[in-house]
Design brief:
247 residues, alpha/beta, seven-stranded mixed sheet, 35% helix
Length: 247
Amino acid sequence: MFTPQGPTFRELAAQALSSVEHGYDLLAPKFDHTPFRTPDPVLRSVARALGRIGPFESGLDLCCGTGAGMDVLRTVCEERVTGVDISAGMLAVARERAARPGGPPTAWVRGDARALPFGPVFDLVVSFGAFGHFLPRELPGLFTQVHSVLRPGGRFAFPIVAPARPGSRGYWALLGFDAAMRARNAVWRPPFVMYYREFRLGDVRRELARAGFSVELYALPEFGRRSDGSPRCRMVVATKRGRERAR
């Protein structure tokens, strides 16, 4: 399915009937050949935008998966980079694809983003495509965890795409996907949380502010603008209040 190297329909069905953690363990060997991986143009755009803000010393990729976002951190962090993910299978693939010389030292940690096993040691936290796995009620705790691992003045950055226009093909596709996930979770256990329509910019800004961040938005110009002039894709940069980060 998707590409000859990607998972079959049967493999995707097995993943969908698993927990989030076990499902990604199953999908890990073929994950990079699915549309679920963050596209390279998005990664490159975020790296360029962060390059204008940085450089940074230490960075964390939250819910790093197979490590695509770690390449962003390697371009903007000088001291060390760390990836954390709940799936041992995804981390195994990430370690294998990152086994090449050059760049800052890299560490891989298995852990839950809702209970991060770090102190305030990072200057930058990034995340790509993971927020659909958290229910809206979990955002305050998630953002509090990110806040706790950043040094004062540290930044939490992630891209967010403008919502599909009501009535558009993308709108109905996402609505149908969410409906299918809700029906699945109503009749099957364990649940598989993946609700991407729930991650709304207004809610995100409010919860980031409550967690102790100041929030800025950066348009990612490579993706253009909608008919009303608003960006199709933005980078959210939330800064931990406190002294300015040392350069």
